[in-house]
Amino acid sequence: MKHIIAFAGSNSKTSINKQLVTYTSSLVENTKTEVLDLNDFDVPLFSVDLEASMNGQPENAHKLLNKLKEADGLIISLAEHNGAYSAVFKNMFDWMSRIESKTFFGKPMLLIATSPGARGGKSVLAIAKDRFPRHDANIVGVFSLPKFKDNFSNGMINNKELNNQLLVEVGKLKNAL
């Protein structure tokens, strides 16, 4: 059975991106899906000086990177803070890329985002679509959910058209596994 790792690039306990990634992961049938929480992989703020004083990278960066390495596919829902990655995601990404520059190991990736606004995290998705392939991401699908509070309730997307768009992207991931 294929194994998918899913997580939100957020450390908010009420993260709308975690809600979206949890729902999305439930749509990938006949797979083992593990939804991770970045709060379980706490690392200090990256700096080369700290890295040198630690003689390497934090254990939690290695743990998350190993989870990605062991997976057959990835679903990542990026929180957008001021048009870019959240600080917690960027920090973890920085640490992991010091361990392995090809951070995503060529795994099929469904890249998603949501936000309260009408653009639905499109700015952070554009950044990730540009950056992640340089770290060996195999982005097979992309989905943006605008106006989270209007389009998501009871643990699922309530807008049929948007839900159908997500199902198409989930299908691309399933086909790539």
TrEMBL record:
UniProt xrefs under Gene3D superfamilies: 3.40.50.360
Domain NADPH-dependent FMN reductase-like: 4-142
InterPro entries per the UniProt record, alphabetical: Flavoprotein-like_sf (IPR029039), FMN_Rdtase-like_dom (IPR005025), NAD(P)H-dep_reductase (IPR050712)
GO MF annotation: an example: FMN binding
Annotated GO CC locations: cytosol
Cleaved signal peptide residues: none
Name assigned to this protein: NAD(P)H-dependent oxidoreductase
